[in-house]
Amino acid sequence: MTIRSNIVGIDSPEALERALRAAYYLADEGLATAAYLALALGKPLLLEGSPGVGKTEAAKAIGAVLARRLIRLQCYEGIDAAAALYEWNYPRQMLAIRQAGEESIDIYGESFLIERPMLAAVRAPDSTVLLIDEIDRADHEFEAFLLEFLSDFQISIPERGTIRAAERPVVVLTSNRTRDLHEALRRRCVYHWIDYPTPEREARIVMMRASSVAESTARAVVAAVGKLRREPLTKAPGIAEAVDWAEAATLLHKGGARWPEAFKRSIGVAVKDEEDLHFISPRLDALIAEAAA
Amino acid sequence: MNREPPLPQAAYVFISFVALLRANGFAVAPEQTTAFLAAIELLGPKSLEHIRMAGLATLAPPHERRLTYDRLFDIHFRGGEELDRTGDAHEEEIVRLQEEGRGDEEALYADEANESGLTATRAEALVERRFAQGMVNDALRRLTLLAPRRLPRRKGYRRRRGRRGPWADLRRTLRETVRNDGEILHLRRLRRRPRLRKVLLLIDVSGSMKALTEENMRLGHALSQAVPNVEVFTFGTRLTRVSRALRLKRREQALNAAASLVSDWDGGTRIGDALQAFLAVPRFASYARGATVIVISDGLERGDASALRDAVAKLARRSWRLSWLTPLATGTGFRPQTEALVAIEPFVDDLVQGGTSAAVVSHILSLGQRRAA
């Protein structure tokens, strides 16, 4: 195992936390530690948590801190090697064969190769961050295939040979936990469970992300969102919803609506499910009044 | 001779912590131990918290066992003062609402289920149960054998070669073309590969189902072993996820592991609350999406029938097909009599006999044959 304790001037979790803050991402101590360890140990970082806690944002911020290009591989059921690694440009190969006529031609040259995210990351490990997003959506076959990739970071193309990453690429995986991931995958990674932020931190996030939201508004929104998350809703509001709600309420308030009214009318940006709205509406007034207090 | 360098004395305390975790059922690989030691060195460590976080990141304890991890950590690194509270070490293994990291407060569902608070929790029949070793009966053997072929399928998103299909298989076509000097003789096709649907099995373990609980758990195990994508929950006064335990291959081991998770054997029934609790955890609710949902319960509801009705309606909307198997049903022309069953009848696709495992198995195996009503 090669250990780099210093990555582009970042030599401790605290330094990484500061750098992430400069990239407009407020990480807690646990996340900063896990991310720092992943970078230092050269292991992939696996982030799990409920939808909307900022897993993908964390990966983007890490990319920004390292000043690297973020390559995103969105997983879905049925994703396969052709979508993740590389694919040959078959129509072009076909055309080349036709045009070549009697002459011999190499149809497995570079110009016929279509690079997909994982190959791109292996080819330029020092200037990219590979984000494998929502790995829980992919099927077991892809997860097994990923295991191999994450342990030795090499890709073999039968027609061209094996391509090995010159250094261990920075890889971030995220999962919403709609199914259990394989133990072996967790074993390969540095793991962190992202929780909803504390109200204190979330209020700071809202103010940092939203354009012009007063501190009192941010606090009230965060308190209300915190209460909503404790309700049995189908889709609990995430951080992005909190930001949107604060922004929307501020907008309505500027347009002349009074405060509790502004919150209430913009609930649609925070709770986006008809059943949930129906469930919560009888108690919405009390909930908002309580949060604003 | 090549001798490995001796470990520094200080490392032993960390390695013994890993051993302690393993002894408590955490899967930790040697490479994770190495990473753990490297991480501790990287972080300083300036405080005990650094070591805790290094362990969390590199040893990757599952989130739902975080409390156990923390307790073991305290025992190991802070000494024995915490020992007293570890008697209920498997407490947090019971899946309740707070499992998804909703903070420390007592679970909503547990609150609802025990209106009078702590005393009720204690009074609740939290029974431990061990299953007798029994023979697999013919019905279960039939399930194991036929389930992979007979369970409902859907079109998957992975493609495979086929004689006909909506896509051209360019890869295969090109290879053949190269062999034929650039002449396309056949255009090969791709089609969608069928996949087994997810199966969600909800087993009633309340007192009124007592005689059938054991058989139903065996059935859950047989089903989990036969096909992938099976999720099994038990409910009575609580909701417990037993899928992980039932994935153990050996039956006795799996059933005992599941039995130790479930604490409300042979208690009361609050089906409505249990299903609401199930639906309120997004991760659990997503197990029902597009799935074959099978509920084995007599529907003798002590709670509110309208809560049950709403929950079943929600569950039915999510699922591909919802079957309610009840021992009360006999024969084909069954008309429900109890209030709860009458309330849910409009929403379930099948309301059929579930009194014996033979009946349950033949219903499960027939699901793939007919179209959902």
Largest interface: A-B, 58 and 51 residues
Task: Work out the count of structural domains of chain B.
Answer: 3
The helix content of chain B is 40-55%
Estimate the global geometry of chain A from the Cα principal axes.
elongated
Low-confidence stretches of chain B: 84-126
Number of domains of chain A: 2
Oligomeric status = heterodimer
- Straight-line N-to-C gap of chain B: 74 Å
How big is the Rg of chain B?
25 Å
Q: Output the number of helix runs of chain B.
A: 16
CATH topology of the largest domain in chain A: Rossmann fold
Query: Helix-strand pattern of chain B, N to C?
Result: HHHHHHHEEHEEHEEHHHHEHEHEH
How much of the sequence of chain B is in beta strands?
5-15%
- Order of neighbouring strands in the sheet with most strands of chain A: 2-5-8-1-9
CATH architecture tag of the largest domain in chain B: 3-Layer(aba) Sandwich
SSE layout and pairing:
The complex is a heterodimer of chains A (293) and B (373).
Chain A: H1 13-22, H2 29-41, E1 45-48, H3 55-65, E2 69-74, H4 81-84, E3 86-88, H5 90-100, E4 113-115, H6 117-123, E5 128-133, H7 140-152, E6 154-157, E7 161-164, E8 170-175, H8 183-188, E9 190-193, H9 199-209, H10 215-230, H11 239-254, H12 259-265, H13 274-292
Helix pairs in contact in A: 1-2, 1-3, 9-10, 9-11, 10-11, 10-13, 11-12
Chain B: H1 11-23, H2 30-43, H3 48-59, H4 66-78, H5 108-113, H6 118-123, H7 138-150, E1 153-162, E2 167-168, H8 170-179, E3 189-196, E4 199-204, H9 210-226, E5 230-235, E6 239-241, H10 243-246, H11 251-261, H12 271-280, H13 282-288, E7 292-296, H14 305-318, E8 321-326, H15 339-344, E9 350-353, H16 357-366
Parallel strand pairs in B: 4-5, 4-7, 7-8, 8-9
Antiparallel strand pairs in B: 1-3, 2-3, 5-6
